[in-house]
Description:
Blueprint: H1 25-29, E1 45-54, E2 57-67, E3 72-76, H2 83-90, E4 100-108, E5 111-112, H3 120-126, E6 127-130, H4 142-151, H5 158-171, H6 175-178, H7 191-203, E7 209-213, H8 221-234, E8 239-243, H9 247-253, E9 256-261, E10 264-270, H10 271-276, H11 281-287
Parallel strand pairs: 3-8, 3-9, 6-7, 7-8
Antiparallel strand pairs: 1-2, 1-4, 4-5, 9-10
Amino acid sequence: MASADDTSSKASDRRHLAVVTPAPKELRDEPSEQPASGGEQQPKFSARELNAWFGAQHVLENITLDIASDEVTAIIGPSGCGKSTFIRCLNRMHELEPDARVSGEVLFDGETIYAPTVDPTLLRRRIGMVFQRANPFPAMSIRDNVLAGRRLTGRLRRGEADEIVETALREAALWSEVDYRLGHSSAGLSGGQQQRLCIARALAMQPEVLLMDEPCAALDPVATARLEDLIHSLKGNYTIVIVTHNMQQAARVSSQTAFFLDGALVEYQETDRLFTSPEDPRTEDYLTGKFG
Ligand SMILES: Nc1ncnc2c1ncn2[C@@H]1O[C@H](COP(=O)(O)OP(=O)(O)OP(=O)(O)O)[C@@H](O)[C@H]1O
Ligand SMILES: [Mg+2]
């Protein structure tokens, strides 16, 4: 579930990892393999030969790709291919599972996230996560839900807390629907509203990145459209990585799309190109419904 630690930090407030050592020079200047690239600028993330295991099960194999800053990147692929595992490696949530292991490298703003000196809790504040099922805390008010993560980072003055709540709810396109009932329980919100509340909770941490794992899976088409509008409005200020089973959604919201299959990255392209002229026949087979 999305605890405070799952949330992150902001594009306009670029900080360095407080306790991170710089990536080894060779990892930045001389990659052992040319990464699949999401753009020309310095990527937000660079995965290099990333492998992940659950016990003996090897679930990600040598994933090398760059994720562009302040854009939306979609991850698609059949169930079980490793999409969730991949994004959970980007904020070191994978390692919270028993018997989970990774090898390889993930650079975040050019700095390795797996160095022993990196504090994963601080990292997760900068790289927020939103899950398939909205998971607000039902015993808490809407206001307290938004502040749940922030309160773990220190005491807030009343005025400061009010401002954080309003800003995050406005950014999450929920303010006008809840401003008159901030003290009410989050349990009284619709599914789409609860999902936007979880996004507000993540945004209140001022993240730089939002990892979204099938955020619309439990939503109806109207709520899905609203969430896609929200993703469009956040793009440019946040780096967004979205896992989706909905091909139309990937095509609508993302600028880059990565297709995973059996733990491997098959193809990574500009979204328009991947959907109109995929290079790998397996991508085409997946897009045309031949498997998955
Ligand atoms: N907590 C876990 N413990 C053990 N194995 C796991 C765990 N989570 C996932 N796996 C296994 O890792 C592999 C990749 O799973 P992952 O959840 O990353 O797939 P996915 O592409 O997100 O699938 P879906 O589209 O169904 O969400 C699968 O074989 C899955 O069974
Ligand atoms: Mg998944």
